[in-house]
Specification:
By secondary structure, the protein is an alpha/beta fold. The protein has a domain of about 220 residues: Rossmann fold. The chain contains 11 helices and 10 strands. The strands form 2 sheets. Strands 1-2-4-3-5-6-9-10 form an 8-stranded mixed β-sheet, sandwiched between helices. It starts with 9 loop residues before the first strand and ends in a 6-residue tail after the last helix.
């Protein structure tokens, strides 16, 4: 599946069981990579970093089911279904042993895929930790954390697939522009993803994919993940990259900021111990928030490049 004669990325589709998956072939040559985005995001998030990586990698990206231009799927959204989709894309693109590079939910899927497919050369998880477990929140009482996490999950479910009238599009764009300005990257980097995510209801209203039913299913599936046991049993190398900056959510969500600050401290300790005990695990940090793909594409590309250069691709 070659890239276009112009050298621009080529859009592809992969049909698999109950869903059609949207894939982008970025071209390039070298170690093959499949880039997997996070929850409620799209493959557009990878545009900048893919442009850095094609110099020495064969690069593909995909929209997860119910996201972007991929179908919603006839079956419920599950981790098993998403992993099956990844396998189908790798096979269809002729790179069954590609290195998976994922962000957020995509990073967790990368680790899970490598765990289930030991021939995978390696995997990269960029800030994909979910909400973890209460005991991982350093300095906070686990019962208080559990209550806060329940509140955060209720908030996320209430926002999932929320519909808005056509005139609400400008408000959505304004919020995105404000976020980009606050984090120091161009708002245009969010525009393609917003267009890919935009869905329309039968009565002329809009929502950002995934639609509510699939979004709630996805959130429930993510809540059940516990990644540290997965990391410990991996037989293939893995790079884990953690962002070191938190975004102030404002006074109304100060309770959430407190939770995330404690979680960041707990992750720092837990990941440090993990790397010390498991030589196949490498842990790095980047001066960025969770939106690191848009903030620091060049730095992340260098970390990925350093990781793949050290892989034994013949084993």
């Amino acid at each position: 599946m070659p890239s276009s004669p112009t050298g621009l990325p080529t859009g592809l589709t992969v049909d698999r069981a109950d869903v059609t998956l949207a894939v982008r072939d970025h071209g390039g040559s070298g170690v093959p990579l499949l880039l997997v985005h996070g929850a409620t995001r799209t493959l557009a998030d990878w545009s900048e970093i893919a442009g850095e990586l094609v110099a020495d990698h064969r690069v593909f990206s995909m929209d997860l089911r119910a996201h972007g231009r991929s179908g919603r799927g006839a079956e419920p959204w599950t981790i098993a279904a998403a992993l099956g989709d990844i396998e189908a894309v790798l096979d269809a693109c002729g790179v069954p042993e590609a290195v998976l590079v994922g962000h957020s939910l995509g990073g967790m899927l990368a680790a899970l895929y490598a765990d289930a497919h030991p021939r995978t050369p390696g995997a990269v998880n960029l800030d994909g930790f979910g909400l973890g477990r209460p005991e991982q929140y350093a300095g906070l009482d686990p019962r208080t954390v559990a209550e806060g996490l329940d509140r955060a999950r209720q908030f996320a479910r209430a926002a999932a697939g929320r519909v808005f009238p056509p005139e609400g599009l400008e408000s959505v764009r304004a919020q995105a522009a404000a976020m980009a300005a606050g984090l120091g990257f161009a708002p245009e980097l969010l525009e393609e993803g917003m267009r890919r995510s935009l869905g329309e209801t039968g009565d002329g209203q809009f929502f950002l994919r995934p639609e509510r039913e699939r979004a709630v299913e996805m959130l429930e599936a993510m809540d059940e993940l516990d990644m540290f046991p997965v990391y410990r049993r991996l037989t293939r190398p893995m790079l884990i990259v953690r962002g070191t900056r938190l975004v102030d959510q404002g006074p109304e969500l100060a309770w959430f900021d407190e939770l995330m600050a404690a979680y960041m401290k707990g992750l720092e300790a837990g990941l440090g111990k993990l790397a010390a005990e498991h030589p196949r695990i490498s842990v790095r940090t980047v001066d960025a928030s969770h939106a690191m793909l848009l903030e620091r594409p060049r730095a992340l590309a260098e970390l990925v490049r350093s990781f793949t250069t050290g892989l034994d691709l013949c084993s």
